[in-house]
TrEMBL record:
Official protein name in the record: MOT9 protein
Spans traversing the lipid bilayer: 50-76, 88-108, 120-138, 144-165, 177-195, 207-226, 402-425, 437-463, 470-489, 495-519, 531-552, 564-586
GO molecular function, one term: monocarboxylic acid transmembrane transporter activity
InterPro entries to which the protein is assigned, alphabetical: MFS, MFS_trans_sf, Proton-linked_MCT
Keywords annotated in UniProt: Membrane, Transmembrane, Transmembrane helix
Entries under Pfam families matching the protein: MFS_1
Name of the gene this protein is made from: Slc16a9_2
Length: 605
């Protein structure tokens, strides 16, 4: 219908349709906004508040536990040289350390189900810090290995609790806060080598080790600050209001996109396809032939053959009966009675014997069955008990997750290679002919480059939002090239320091992203179990391949072979990760994108 308003012709039907369409869309928008989504632990994460104190506690703990590790070889360098087994001592200490580290990480998941985070964390801090002081008084590499055995258990509790609590407090700001915290933690790589270099001439290596160990007691203070996330979680009303705001923003963006679309493609099932499906159904039904007649014929033949056999058997039994009657007719009646009585007695005795035998066998069978049932019940109960314990320690869904296991193995190989290189870097510098001052300088240069790289990484993640596992893969590839550069340029001081700076810069991208790689796609409930499984895999990799690399160094006596072995260890899982990102992550991203487009199309049809 067309009407004239102020001299202008207006199509009122079109206007009414547009108004109705707008009202229907508005109603749909309100319905979508008012829908209550499921609230998860990720939604309740504070993303601030006491979370900033958790970040500060994590910095204090990591600074006093990880920071001195870069100076360990500087302090005990002469001790290792005097033992004449630097490679064996390194591999032995790392192996026993990783064994107890993995056990503690697995037990943390069970302990957190029974106790709060702070008591478990304080115990772990004490178990690590006290042996860290006692290690100053070791007399041989075996006593050092025993101290590392105890320290590994404490550090396993510390790291698992620290990472679990931190990741529970932060979800949206997790990567940014982690990278910024790692910048401050990276200062330890600069401060502690310089501090140890100044303290060694004054206090000696034992006094210096005792002072550095005493500083690790600050981790107890950090653990006291680790409040459970439930104490500071967001309120449900605030979370629902925030979700409603996010929905309103997303829907407004979707409406803007839907207005730009002019047509919507629809797919209809063709008549030819329907006709072909009906024909195939008809042919399928006609192809079913009854076989009742043939079955009846075969059955009749079998019945006839059975009846003939029965008639033949009756004829034979009749002839036998006639012969027996003829033979027994000549016997007298009394003798027959006696024979019958004797036969009856014998048969009754035999029957009684068989009955007693069957009864005894049945009783024995009952007893055996009862014993077997009890044994089976005990075995089943033991198996159930072990399964329950295993489920408390390990989340089996993660063990069956191939992508998660692939990430854990890749992180373990790369971190084991990096730790082996950085641990013996001062010794490699002294073996190349440089004095100890340059060995300490190399550690300081690496720490400065690492700190600068962490700052750049923090700025980079503020601008570009990218997953940690992709950064870790890129850093792994770059680390291989940087190590090759050091292998080729270590004979000159300038080339060695430049390549060490490059290695330190790339290392920061590995160390910062490593705690986030394995839990990036998991729920908060699985964080502790994920770190436990990763620690077990890391310990296996360190024990097996770390020992092999240490044996190669002691057997060949060559630092170049040692570096080549570490290069191979660093690059083992580059190809599996690339394949996973292409065939799993990329396909998943495309599928999610297609689903999002389809949902938007169906919402506004």
């Amino acid at each position: 219908m067309i009407t004239e308003v102020n001299g202008t012709m207006i199509d009122t039907s079109t206007t009414n349709d547009a108004v109705q369409k707008k009202n229907s869309i508005t109603g749909k928008v309100e319905d979508v906004i008012n829908e209550e989504d499921e609230i998860t632990l990720e939604d309740l994460a504070p993303d601030g508040g006491w979370g900033w104190m958790i970040a500060l506690a994590m910095i204090l703990i990591m600074f006093t536990t990880i920071g001195p590790m870069s100076s360990f070889t500087i302090i005990f360098g002469d001790f290792f040289e005097d033992s004449g087994q630097a490679g064996f001592a390194t591999s032995l200490s790392n192996s026993v350390f990783m064994v107890t580290y993995s056990i503690a990480s697995l037990l943390t998941n069970t302990l957190l189900k029974r106790y709060s985070t702070r008591p478990v964390g304080i115990v772990g801090a004490l178990v690590f810090a006290l042996p860290n002081i006692v290690i100053a008084f070791v007399r041989n590499i075996y006593e050092m290995a025993f101290i590392c055995l105890i320290q590994g258990f404490g550090l396993g509790l510390i790291f698992t609790i620290t990472n679990t609590v931190f990741n529970s407090y932060f979800v949206k700001k997790r990567a940014k806060v982690m990278y910024a915290s790692q910048v401050i933690i990276g200062l330890g790589g600069i401060i502690f080598p310089t501090l140890c270099e100044k303290m060694l001439p004054i206090y000696g290596f034992r006094g210096t080790a005792a002072i550095i160990g005493a500083l690790s007691l600050h981790s107890v203070v950090g653990m006291i600050m680790m409040h459970p996330v439930e104490w500071h979680a967001k309120k449900l009303e605030d979370v629902r209001a925030e979700k409603a705001r996010e929905k309103r923003q997303n829907i407004s963006q979707e409406l803007a996109l839907s207005n730009r679309r002019s047509t919507i493609d629809t797919v209809h099932l063709s008549l030819k396809t329907k006709w072909n499906s009906l024909c195939s159904l008809k042919e399928g039904r006609s192809s079913e032939m009854p076989l009742l007649t043939e079955t009846v014929k075969v059955s009749a033949q079998r019945v006839a053959s059975v009846s003939a056999i029965e008639n033949h058997g009756r004829a034979i039994s009749g002839s036998i009966w006639e012969n027996l009657s003829k033979r027994t007719s000549a016997i007298s009646a009394p003798s027959l009675v006696n024979l019958a009585n004797r036969t009856t007695c014998i048969l009754s005795d035999i029957q009684l014997f068989h009955l007693e035998k069957n009864y005894s066998e049945r009783q024995a069978d009952k007893k055996n069955r009862g014993k077997e049932k009890k044994q089976n019940k005990e075995i089943i109960e033991k198996i159930k008990k072990y399964i329950t314990i295993l489920r408390e320690l390990v989340d089996m869904s993660l063990v069956k997750n191939f992508c998660f296991i692939n990430l854990c193995f890749g992180v373990s190989f790369v971190c084991s290679s990096d730790f082996g290189f950085s641990f013996l870097l001062p010794l490699m510098m002294t073996d190349a002919g440089y004095p100890k001052t340059y060995a300490a300088l190399s550690v300081t240069v690496s720490g400065i480059a690492e700190l600068a790289s962490k700052i750049l990484l923090s700025v980079f993640t503020l601008i570009i939002n990218i997953k940690s596992k992709y950064i870790f893969l890129a850093a792994t590839i770059l680390m291989g090239f940087a190590r090759m550069g050091f292998l080729l340029c270590e004979h000159t001081l300038k080339g060695a320091l430049i390549t060490i700076a490059l290695i330190g810069a790339v290392r920061s991208w590995l160390l910062v992203t490593q705690p986030l790689v394995i839990i990036e796609d998991l729920n908060i409930e699985k964080f502790a179990s994920a770190y436990g499984i990763n620690s077990v895999i890391s310990s296996l990799v360190t024990i097996i391949f770390g020992a092999i690399v240490g044996i190669i160094k002691d057997w060949t006596g060559s630092n170049k072979m040692y570096q080549i072995s570490l290069l191979v260890t660093n690059s083992v899982f580059i190809l599996p990760w690339i394949l996973q990102f292409i065939f799993v992550d990329f396909r998943k991203w495309r599928k999610q994108r297609a689903q999002k487009v389809n949902i938007m199309d169906h919402q506004w049809e």
